[in-house]
Amino acid sequence: MKLLEVQSSVRLERSVSRSLSHEFVQAWQMNHSHAQHKMRDVGTNPPAHPTELWTQANYTPPEARTLEMVGVLSHSEQLIAELLWADCLLLGVPMYNLSVPSNFKAYLDNVVRVDRTFAFDCETFTLQGLATGKKALVITPSAGDYAPGTPMAKFDFCEPYLRAILEFIGIADVTVITVPNQFMPDEIRHQQIETARTKLMALAATW
Ligand SMILES: Cc1cc2nc3c(=O)[nH]c(=O)nc-3n(C[C@H](O)[C@H](O)[C@H](O)COP(=O)(O)O)c2cc1C
């Protein structure tokens, strides 16, 4: 088993997604003794945003790319290789302004690439995800509560977006652990963390 952990909170010490992920990985490794684990921290080390040259390179067939194009895509290629290497993805993705952190979006812009992680047939208008055979576990804390049926549910562009973009590249087996109410008083906040921790510890044995 090969686990790629991607963290996107800009916080280190006080990050709920990072600390829960850390606990999960430790418990998961106890149950998967020969597992390999790689960490990609886009919260503190975000990939560059696409540029005009990057875009041109992306849509140029590999054999026709100039050295400059190859260079501008090299980090993206490294991130894609790492993603394709993994069987399991653990994604720490807090809600930022109703969606994913911009650092994580920059990561996605680098890994969701035509003919690398998805293919699109322009004649039949069909999409094919190329990052298949993987599962993903997402830990997503938020200040508010966006659970279905709550007044805030309609503002959630984080979980639905994550599910959609993962499915887009071929990953439909997605488990999302939300950690809501992180701006509430400590008692409520900690209760939510404990609920998430319990779910994660159960998953560590079975996932
Ligand atoms: C830039 C920024 C934007 C945020 N936007 C939202 C938001 O739209 N809705 C929400 O519920 N929480 C929002 N939050 C709160 C975070 O989701 C919350 O603090 C979460 O615990 C952060 O994850 P972390 O603990 O792993 O750092 C925002 C936090 C930051 C830093």
Describe this structure in words.
Its cofactor is FMN. Its EC number is 1.6.5.-, 1.7.1.17. It catalyses: 2 a quinone + NADH + H(+) = 2 a 1,4-benzosemiquinone + NAD(+); N,N-dimethyl-1,4-phenylenediamine + anthranilate + 2 NAD(+) = 2-(4-dimethylaminophenyl)diazenylbenzoate + 2 NADH + 2 H(+). By secondary structure, this protein is of the alpha/beta class. The chain has one domain (2-206): 3-Layer(aba) Sandwich (Rossmann fold). Helices cover 40% and strands 19% of the residues. It has helices at 16-31, 52-58, 67-72, 74-85, 102-111, 159-168, 186-206; strands at residues 2-7, 36-41, 88-92, 118-121, 126-129, 135-141, 173-179. It has a five-stranded parallel sheet with strand order 2-1-3-6-7, with helices on both faces. A two-stranded antiparallel ribbon has the order 4-5. Helix 1 (16-31) packs parallel to helix 7. It is globular, with a radius of gyration of 18 Å. The termini are close together. The model has no long low-confidence stretch (mean pLDDT 98). The protein binds flavin mononucleotide (FMN). Flavin mononucleotide binds at residues 9, 11, 15-18, 94-98, 141-144, 182.
